[in-house]
Amino acid sequence: MSTTIEQLRVAFHLALRAQHTSEFDAAALVRAWPRLAGAAWTVQQSLANSRSHSDLLVERIALDAQSLGAAVEHQPWPGPGRPDTALSQVTAALEHSAKMIQTAPIGPDELPEANRLTASSLWTTSQLVGRAARDHSVDLRMDHRRSQPAQLELASVARDTHRRFNAVEQLAAAALAEPGRRRPVPTDAGTQLRRAIAVWDVEAHRALIGDRSTTVLHVLSHLETESMKAFEGFVAQATETGIIDKVTAGRLSPILRDSSTSWGQLRDASAELSFGSVPVPMTLINAGRDLQERFADAGRHSQPEDHPEVLHALSGHLASAVTISAAARDLIQTGDLRAPARAIARIVREQDLSRLATSVDPVAIQRRQTVPLTPETRPILAAPARRVFLAADEAVNRAAGLDTLLRSPLPVQESEESTGKQSPPKQPPPVMSTPSKAASPRL
Predict the structure, then answer these.
(1) pTM to 2 decimal places
(2) Does residue 324 carry a pLDDT above 80?
């Protein structure tokens, strides 16, 4: 009878094998991903230390996957269909592992190995899905047999999916680097910054998934605007104190400014479709404010031994900005985002003064209800949301200099003697993003 660790090792081996046995159907791989990420989070929840890691990385990945899963069938790509068989096998192995943990809990000595195996499965499969989406986008652009407008639209969606999975892959790589890695004991500044980034990511995704209103989007966009300003201010301080080199700072500062501006545009656009009587989770507001304070504290109080910890946190924040903006776009594009009926009617009327009536239900207007965005109002938010997403992706591309695997002088624990079984790497290779041009990202 196999143990839980052996079952988790089976899941990891299946993830490795999927690199060769998968049909490499990008759409099927994307469809299979949300359930796989959810299964990995179920395993983490079953472990005794499910929330002991300050980064909450597996939970953050699972929440983004949940948002993606809700949007998959409503988008032009990948659309409805069957999931990839190879990834479904990985999912089944993870789900079986979670059930085994319930009956036979893992001991403290095995927790690092269980965490490492779970993170390894996520990292390997997210890399597979992202590469498949990238290649599918290229194939669509080179295929001249299809109608050009529809082809380019699908290629754009596939390319954005690759951008999203590039961020997810970096989060998974950070989770894989956690177990067994030696770090100095950080001061409160470094630890609190990492925790604040993790909590903000979780609360932002939960708010978007749970509420789905333009009011929440408006507040979230405002908090992201201020957080990016705080991030830019931190980069300036960190350059003076030597935490970040001038070259990296020179590449990051302009795109952080663009990102803050883009979030501000989305904030202003969503304000036109919101009203203040809709309650916004206080956990979201508190998480956003706390993150801004932690950026200020890290710039003023961090010590040299905190620098790897701080840089690690900053890389995670940039990746989270991609997934949060992607989750917001999911709601807008699928029509799940809701706004006050009165606000939608006013916007539609302002767009075409010759119209005597709108498509909004007058009863909903009278009762002050919220309704899904109409096709006429959706582009008002879709355009700034895409600019936010592209700016966040560009920031990730420019942040290669923040990679703590390259900058940290700390040694990595040596691997234990081989037991004859294949085990996941103790830490992933550095995630080196391709340097981008200094110009703003193209829309």
Answers:
(1) 0.86
(2) yes
